[in-house]
Each structure stands twice: as C-alpha cells, then as structure tokens.
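cron nightly-structures :: item 1 of 1
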Amino acid sequence: MMTSLKKKIKNPLHSVINSNGMNMGTVTKLQNASSQDDKFVYAMLETSEKGITDTTAEERRLKFGINELQHQKAPKRLMQLLKAFANPFIYILLVIAVVSFVIDVWLPSVEDRDFKTVIVVSVMILVSALLRFVQEYRSNSAAEKLKSMVKTTATVFRKFTGKKEIPISELVPGDIVYLSAGDMIPADCRIIQSKDLFVSESMLTGEALPVEKSHFPIRNAEKKQPTELNNVCFMGTNVVSGSATAIVVATGSYTFFGSISRSIVGERPETSFDKGINKVSFLLIRFMLVMVPLIFLINGLLKNDWAEALLFAIAIAVGLTPEMLPMIVTANLAKGAVTMSRHKVIVKRLNSIQNIGAMDILCTDKTGTLTLDKIVLEKHLNVYGIEDDEVLKWAYLNSYHQTGLKNLMDEAVLEHADLHDYLKVEEQYIKVDEIPFDFQRRRMSVVLKTHNGKHLLITKGAVEEMLELCTNAFDPGDDRSLHIENDSVVPMDDMMRKTVLNTSKKMNEEGLRVLLVAIREFDSSHPLTYSVQDENQLTLTGFIGFLDPAKPSAKPAIEALQKLGVGIKVLTGDNEIVAKKICNDVGIPVQHVVNGIDLEKMTDDELLQQIDTVSVFAKLNPLQKVRVVKALRGKGHTVGFMGDGINDAAALKESDVGISVDTAVDITKESADIILLEKDLMVLRKGVIYGRRTFGNIIKYIKMTASSNFGNMFSMLGASMFLPFLPMLPVHLLVQNLLYDISQISIPWDKMDEEFIRKPKKWDAGSVSRFMLFIGPISSIFDFATFAVMFFVFKANTPEHQTLFQSGWFVEGLLSQTLIIHMIRTRKVPFIQSWAATPVVALTSLIMVIGILIPFLPFAAALKMQPLPLSYFPWLIGILTCYCLLTQLVKNWFIKKFNSWL
C-alpha cells in the first residue's frame, strides 16, 4: 500500500488541477503528510531526519523544477501592441479612415485632396490602441512583483554536509528546513518538531490573528482544506514566534502560493464594459452592412448612375458611424475619473468606471472592510455570564506581566490602561515567575507577589483545557464593580460546569473568541520555581471574549449600497459563525452559508444553481474566491470584488471591477482597477453613483447619435430619390456634423435623473437598436415636412433655387439634432421636469444661435448658403415644436412598452 501511494503522489507534474485551481497532487501530498507520523512522511518523500544529499537535491531540482513561482512570460511588446488594435471600435474607425482616404485623397484631383478626416481618424485609432497597450503592459508586471517577493534564503539540513544557508530557489521536496521567528516559510512544509510556533497566514486567509502550528498528526486531514491543516506551513507566510523543524512537501508553482501566482498572470477576462461596447460596436457594423448595400442598390436602380450611387452609399456609411464615440467615451471616463479622485476614489483603468456603475454584486472580505481589522475585548463576564469588572482585572494583570509574545488579544486587554493606576499594577503586584504558553496546554500563567506577601497564580487559556483544572469558581454576588478580592468561592460541580460551557457556547455563537481566566493563591513560602504542575485546583473568575467588531460606518454604507441595487456577498477565510455575526451586525441578510469544504464538493452546475441564495462564503482559500466570482459572472452579474491581501489578488483580476485600498500590498493594488484612499464602503457608494452617471452620459451620446444618424439616413435617402438636386452639399454635412459634435462635448458634465442612478446599469445592444428604430425615424418625418415647406411654400424646387432649400434644411436639421439632446437625456419632460446641466444648456443654445446665423453671415456664400426669409422662421418654430411634442409622446409610449429609456 505504501509503495502504491508513494507512486501515486510522488510526482505532481502529472496530476490534475482541481476546480479551485489547486494542483490535486499537491493537495493529496499535503493531506497525506499531515495525517501520518514522521516515519511515514520521511518514507513518502524519500528522505530521513538527516535530510537528502546534494546529489539527490540536484536530481529532484531537474524533476520538480526550481523553487520559484513559475509564471507565464508577458508577450513581446510588439505582439502586445498589435493585439491592442484588435478591437471592434478600431475596426469601425479603420473603415472610416479607408473610406475617407478613397473619397478625400485618392479620387479627387491633387489640388482638391483633403487629409483632415484621415489624419483625425488615424490619431483616434492610435490614441485608443496606445491607451489599451499601456494598460495591459502595466498589468503584466503584477507577476514580476509577486515573484520578487520571495527572493531570500533558507536554513537547510543536508546529509553529509549538515546545516547550511541556501537560496530558497534551490529547495526541493524532501529537504529538512529550520524555521524561527521572523522567517518566511520557503515552501509548503510539514512540521516535524515545533516549540511555541505561531505563523501569520494573513496573506493567504486575510485573518489578522497568527495561527498556532504543531507537529502532531491530523488523522482526518483528507476531510480538511489545506489551509486548515495546523501541522502544515505554506510558502510565503511568516513565523511570528517560536521555532520548528519541517520537511519540504511541495515547491515552486505546485505550492499553494504558486497556484495564486498562476491565476493572476495572463490576459484579464473580458469585463462587462468590454462585452457591452463590443455588442454596441457590432450592432452599428451590422446596420452598416445591411443599410449601405441597400441604399447603393436603390440609388443605382433609380438614377442609373452607379458611380454616384457608390459615393453616396459610402457617405451614408460614414454618416451611420458615430465617429466621436471613442472620444466621447474617453472624455466621459476621464471626467468621471477626475471627479472620483476628488472623493477619495482613484481610477487605475478607465473602463472600470462603467463597470462600477453596472455592478449589481459586491463581493467583499470581512476583515477591515466590514470590521475594524483590530481585535478588541468585547466582553468580560463572570461565571454566570454577566459583565463583571473583576474578571477584567485578572485578565489585565496576566497580560501586563507576561514577557512572552504579546498577541493581539493581550494588546486588546491592555487597551484598558485606566486599570493600570487604579490597581497600582507595579506597586501592589510584583512578578515572581511565568509559565509560558504551549500548544499541549493552550494556556499561560504569571505568578505575582501581592501586597500581603502571598503568591497569586493567574492563568488564562482555552475553555476546555482550563475547565479541567478548575475545582472552584467565584460567586460574584451582586457586586459587579472592581473591588479587592471579596467574592465568595463555590465548588465547580456539574451544574456550574454546565453553566460555564453554555455561556462559552453562547459567546462562540456570537462570533467571540473565548478564553477563561482563573487564579490560585499560594503561601509566600512556596519555592519560586513554579511549573505546569502548579496549574491545578484553580478558581475560575470568568470569561473574556474577543472580536474584530463591525465598523460603525459599515451598516449605513451597506444600506446605501443595497438601495442602489448592489447585493453584498461576504467571501472570507474566517469561520462561518464569526462571518454570520458580523453580517447580522451590519445588515447583510444571511440566507445560506457555504464553507470552503462544501464548495470543494460542489460541481460548477450546482454552484451556479445555488449561488444567488448564498450570502456568506466562509473558510475560503484564494482560488475558491476566484471560483465564486467566476460563477457569479457566469450568471450574468456584473461583479465587484473588494480586497487588500495577496489572497485577494486573483479574485480582483477575475472580477469586472477589482477594488482595493491604498494600504494594500503592491500585488493587490496592481491587480485592482479602482483604489480607495479610505477602506470604507461609504467611499465606494460615491464611486458607484459616479460610475452610473458616467455610463448614463456615454449611453446618451450613443443613443442620440445612433438614432439621429439613422433618421438622417432616411431623410437623405428620401430626398435623393425625389429631388432633382442634392438635399445638402458635402460641405453643409461637414459643418452640421462639426457643430453637432461640438454641442455634445458638454455631455460629460451633464446630470442624470435620480431614478437612473438607483439601479445598476448595463450595456444593452438590443435597447440601442430598438431606440434607433423607434426614435430615429421621428426626425425624418419633420425633415420631410421641411422639404415640403421649402419645395412648395418657398418654391425652392429647381437646381437654381437649391441653395435656399439647402440653407433651410441645414438650419432645421441642426436645430432638431441639437434639441434632441434635451429630449433624449431624461425620461421626464425636458425644461419642465428636468433641466440639463448648465454647460449643456449653454453650449447647445450657442450652437443653435450659430446655426441660425450662419446663412446670414458674410462667408455664407463661400459655404453655398443664402439668407433665409423671415417668413421661414414661424414654419421652423412650428416644425420644431411639433417634433418635440411627438418625440415626447413616442418617448412615453416607448417607456411604457419596454420599461426602459436610457
């Protein structure tokens, strides 16, 4: 059996990767090493207590690779640059550039060539691609930073050469290593011997308290997650105190840390913004592919001039493309980033602004986000479970006088410094001896000489171990205040023991970490060499309960996010009891809780079915967090992930919007899209609001331009079919487009209605196409009305009078396009229920005035326009008023039918 097991798990290179990204060979190896005695572990890893020889180490290095985090090399710069151009946005712009080159440069004579459009579009293409290239190039440096974190040495014991320092990269499975306070764990190891070993695993689990580690086998290890194995240490974690001898089980990318490294390199998954913008871009391309050939055929068949028909079709294709789209999107995102930076939200990747607005699920760690990230003494109760300052007194004396490692719980007790002077800690109590903490006892004691000369042993430790040593308990009576030992003593009978255990259980259910405090008095004649044997016949004083409490700001912030339609899911490395307690404190409804072991057993389909009903995921390892984020995105959610530890880096990259804080580790900040200058969800709420405002302004532009261009195309098509001349000259179209584009520059400064901000917003290509089909043709109705007025009323119906016709349609077309900005920007009635922001009102008004004045200006003749008769303007006012009224009616019908607008 031993031989077959060794063969099965000896070489992880041939083993599979499980659903959480962990190498199954490594998991099996760690579990087997954890569950068995030392001799089995030596045999399994083909080593001994004297280690392996240098020759064997060299052979294993060739087999397993060097002990470094293997990472995929970033593609060469040139390849990254070329890939940056692979984007539907850029495809549209390239089509425009080619078309513009043909029409403006290739076909005209040398003196008529015009490079303006080609240059502008080429600059747009370059700017867009270079921005993308820079972002991706920067994100690839994340793996390098992770790799550089583990460049150090380890103390190893090798056969024949003995103890020596070697670079961590030279370690192999089977090596014997020595660990002491301050060391970084050099690989995934099984502890063989240990003394008072505490290891900080916060980089893996996110939890602040160091973990106790020991060398005893864990017989049911196969039922536990690797991070729950307390005789195993993981690469990259740190020894806080104590010492140990350990055997290397896994190295390099087969370690737990290595699996995180693999998950944060490579291309970032496509986010909600990328998918949305691609859908809208492809929608516009599809419209062009359908409409342009259709127009070409209709014009060619009606006028029998195929060359003219081709040029007209190409002009229509250019008209159908919102050429300002990349610039407006970038301007909106940049404006959003600047605004957010004033509110303590730094945007690293511009696209993430829309994603934070679209976010409908926020996954967050518990520690430091929902909690203070600080252990506090929450309760000090007597044996009956009632607050009692006497218990606090004993706990304070114990923590103050101990000289060993003061852990976070001791520091929490010592926060009550007001007791120091009251108790006269240094005058009334002189330290005589100390019995330090160890894992077998799970307690520590100090011995103090009191003012009456007697010796007082004060012990604190884990509930079960302490209870076995207590023969009595203090009956506090009615006096709960601080006093000098005058409580009566009662025996620790079965009834009292049951009371103590019930109180302890109740405190545990509240998420508290519970210790018992007990005392024993000795005569001054007792020898000063106190030992573990003296820790008996203790008198129990009561309980002390510790907690990383909820932040006061967390509850209102979560309520505010929930009002904005953002659901909160807690993904934590801590246990489910603590997580549930904090969730209840901050107002996150706890429906179902799934822990890491349950998640490991779930298939992807089972996870997808259950994920919407689970609000807390507890005891998760870093790669399980990634799996949860993937599953949520698979259900169509836009997922934000907030974290600050290395254990969060992979999940941050997998999410639509990764959110971190400026105090986070470098690797995490590198993986994040947005960095908060305060670790506070209220700051994030502001980010969500600005994200939705920014997205609203982008979608306004897309819907305005797409519907307006679609309407113009119908108008041009109808006019070209029935008029003996062109309805508008290319120069008129150019000036009209230029003025319209200028009027839209102010959109990033516009406001959004409160109703729009309340719900998460996503890209919806179907909504854009519906908008084009229903709203676009409205402008064509009034364009045709203008044609009729110019043709029949003002008799501009021959080629000799075409300038008057073209001037009349130029003014009506520009004013109707500019007015539509105010009609489309809100669900409400514009100018009555909702006003645009001042810059929008000012700029659109200015453009309308300029549009009306152009035919009357001295250079009008150069633009082939002429002054319009005053009798034209009542018709213009009537047409525009009817246009606004009909648009509002259609808008009301559209909202009622499709329950959406922007």
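cron nightly-structures :: done
The two ends are 67 Å apart (CA to CA).
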